[in-house]
Design goal:
Layout lengths: L1 E5 L9 E7 L6 E2 L4 E6 L4 E5 L4 E6 L6 E3 L3 E6 L17 E6 L12 E6 L7 H4 L4 H9 L18 H17 L12 H7 L26 H16 L2 E9 L1 H18 L5 H13 L7 E3 L4 E3 L5 E3 L1 E3 L2 E3 L2 E2 L7 H15 L14 E4 L19 E17 L2 E17 L5 H16 L9
Parallel strand pairs: 7-10, 14-18, 18-19
Antiparallel strand pairs: 1-8, 2-4, 2-7, 3-6, 4-5, 6-8, 9-10, 11-20, 12-13, 14-17, 15-16, 19-20
């Protein structure tokens, strides 16, 4: 009996993935959980394991192809015989869609088209129409559409927002293809014609990038880089970003780390990361400010009970965001171990699928590179990301026994980028103030655990 291996869901906002390369070939015998292929999305490079043991009967999608979540990729024969051989259902042919990926301003205005193979879908019916989300139903009404004419690509033929927008775009293209009948214009005075003339467009497309010359070198984008480019462009175009920055006196945290570093490293074999302390302060504060631990879903906000903290990890020519699940239930040492483990395996493409899914809030450590100010992009559908900058010794004014004195303190800037559709400056300002209080009140004598 053959088991169909499909493109897995690699995160709430991920709708497609690219087969970087197959690790097996047709005819190979695999055990359950053996890696089958490497998949690349805008979030991760990961190996996808086999769901069953058996022989790879067919590989349906080749290296380098980008397909939607749920698309059949391969068939594995486990050697068993099905009890009832049902006749195969008629399946419509896959549809090839050409998508033009927007490029950064420094590149040419139109990137090469990328062929995306969409999963076969069934025509829309009344039952599927009834399962549309309220936002999609509203979109259908706004455009005056008959939902039965729209082919749904969601589960069970459900019509999604993308299906509606694609249908509207198709209608517009069809209308543009039919030229209107010529109409003789009525005489217009020169003065009136000049007043009614449309203003020249204010936007001028960037000039094409010249071809390489001399010692110039062209470097093709990797699948990961293409995914990151597409995701970041989409997020910046759809999420209204706002930013809040606070300054934190890390004096007590630095003293605590210095007091525990040698003994902890001798016992555990790893050093203590400042990120672990910041994540601990963040998870404790998120309980007081649950709206920041949420996800935006078009017409609603989902407040998440679990605190799954994403950590941004720089890898060769890319950025990955593995997730520490239930970080609030871990000690500082537990968080520290998870950071070290996830970061190490992210750099060698050994993350598991569940380790890049389910994030509810992200912490970014740009201070590792010496940065003192940055504005990170929200990791949608999350609504906020906190960036910790370099800890720098600076002269500051502190109050000691009622007297203001100038002293040298290790100071750190923290930036919170947030989705202004969900959060306002007052909410984020209160959250950041509470994170700062926790870090500044850190007990320098407390054991790391």
């Amino acid at each position: 009996m053959a088991t169909t291996i499909k493109m897995p869901q690699l995160g709430e906002s991920v709708t497609e993935g690219t087969i970087e390369r197959w690790l097996v070939k047709e005819g190979d015998t695999v055990a359950q959980y053996d890696p089958l292929f490497e998949v690349v999305t805008d979030k991760v490079n990961a190996e996808v394991p086999s769901e069953v043991a058996g022989v790879v009967a067919r590989i349906l999608v080749g290296d380098g192809q980008t397909v939607k979540v749920g698309t059949p990729l391969a068939e594995i024969d486990d050697g068993s015989v099905a009890a009832v051989a049902a006749p195969p259902a008629a399946v419509p042919e896959p549809v090839t869609v050409t998508v033009t990926v927007p490029t950064p301003m420094a590149e040419s205005p139109a990137a090469p088209a990328v062929a995306v193979v969409a999963a076969p879908v069934a025509p829309q019916d009344e039952a599927a129409a009834g399962r549309m989300t309220p936002a999609v139903r509203r979109l259908v009404r706004e455009h005056g559409l008959d939902v039965r004419q729209i082919r749904g690509s969601g589960v069970g033929g459900r019509v999604t927002r993308e299906d509606v927008l694609a249908f509207v775009a198709g209608q517009a293209a069809a209308s543009a293809a039919v030229p209107p009948a010529p109409v003789s214009p009525a005489p217009v005075s020169p003065a009136l014609a000049q007043a009614a003339a449309p203003a020249a467009p204010s936007y001028t497309p960037p000039a094409p990038v010249p071809a390489p010359v001399g010692g110039d070198t062209e470097v093709m984008l990797t699948q990961m880089r293409k995914g990151i480019a597409a995701k970041m462009t989409r997020v910046k175009q759809t999420v209204p970003h706002a930013y809040t920055v606070v300054e934190v006196d890390m004096h007590n945290v630095v003293r605590w780390r210095e007091a525990n570093q040698a003994a902890y490293k001798a016992r555990e074999g790893i050093g203590i990361s400042y990120v672990a302390a910041v994540i601990k302060a963040v998870t404790e504060t998120l309980r007081q400010h649950p709206t920041l631990n949420s996800q935006f879903a078009e017409d609603r906000v989902i407040l998440k009970q679990a605190m799954n903290i994403g950590i941004a990890v720089a890898v060769d020519n890319g950025l990955l965001v593995p997730v520490i699940h239930n970080a609030d239930q871990l000690s500082v040492s537990g968080v520290n171990h998870r950071i070290q483990d996830l970061a190490a395996r992210a750099r060698i493409n050994k993350l598991k699928l569940d380790e890049i899914q389910g994030g509810t809030f992200t912490v970014n450590n740009t201070g590792w590179f010496g940065s003192v100010s940055s504005m990170p992009i929200v990791n949608a559908p999350e609504v906020a990301i906190l960036s910790m900058e370099a800890i720098v010794k600076r002269p500051v004014v502190v109050t000691i026994e009622g007297e203001d004195v100038i002293t040298i303190r290790p100071m750190m800037n923290m930036t919170c980028s947030f989705d202004h559709r969900v959060l306002d400056g007052a909410q984020v300002g209160a959250f950041m103030a509470d994170v700062r209080k926790r870090l500044e009140a850190w007990d320098p004598t407390a054991p790391i655990g």
